[in-house]
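Exercise 7. Predict the structure of Integrase from Thermobispora bispora.
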Amino acid sequence: MRVTFASEPATPAHPNEDFVGATADAAVLLDGASAPAGVTSGCSHGVRWYSHTLGALLLAELTESTEPLPEILARGIERVTSLHQDTCDLSRGDSPSATVVMLRRTGDRVDWLVLCDSVLLLDTGAAEPTVVCDDRLNHLLKPSRDRVRALEPGTPEHAEAMREHVALVNECRNRDGGFWVASTDPRAAEEALTGSVPAEKVRAVALLSDGASRLVDRFHLATWREVVGMVDRYGPAELIRRVRRAERSDPDGKRWPRGKPSDDASAVYCTHLNGHRP
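Solution. The predicted structure, encoded as tokens:
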């Protein structure tokens, strides 16, 4: 398997809370969930610590184990929880969290897992790639998010709407009827979207954090097929470059209302999954 990737923080001064890693037979992408400004957590560790610690554990497990991906993810969440459960208050529901995308080639199969709203694109040569994204988060929080985005940042009304939005996120996170993300509860792994396909049918696979996928699902400046063609021809860094160009053209979010002017952006592109390029 051949892997290329690019990952970039939202701004040069901002630590990148995404994690990307790969071996000859596996790739992992995690998108750490940043807390809004002014929101505290019962955990003394940062989001970057969480996403990078869990990501490294998952990648190591993928190189050693052929177990189902949800089992590997559940064990990884348990191990990270054990690293800070004695020093942090993990009972408040506001501990660091991350989305997860996992890809593994085992023999003649390609297995994948997607937890929360990062994106996996599976290119089998059809007219359109298969798009895998757990969009429960977006459906649940859209009314609250739209209210925040409609208000002027820095106003009391915006601050109050943001507090209500954060409370709703905490209320819905990792609960039945809500959305699921990697944090402290290994049961989240059972809620991930998973699949397996013959390696011979896969031309390429792309893993995208929502900071990279926003060129399609937020800005509507490309199709998923165009994204696959773009990263195939020019590499993942080109996708991020075009996202940044769009963000700079709309710094105040008037054309494309969004929670962050810029976000950490990561893209992974995997080919030769059957030992050769179709």
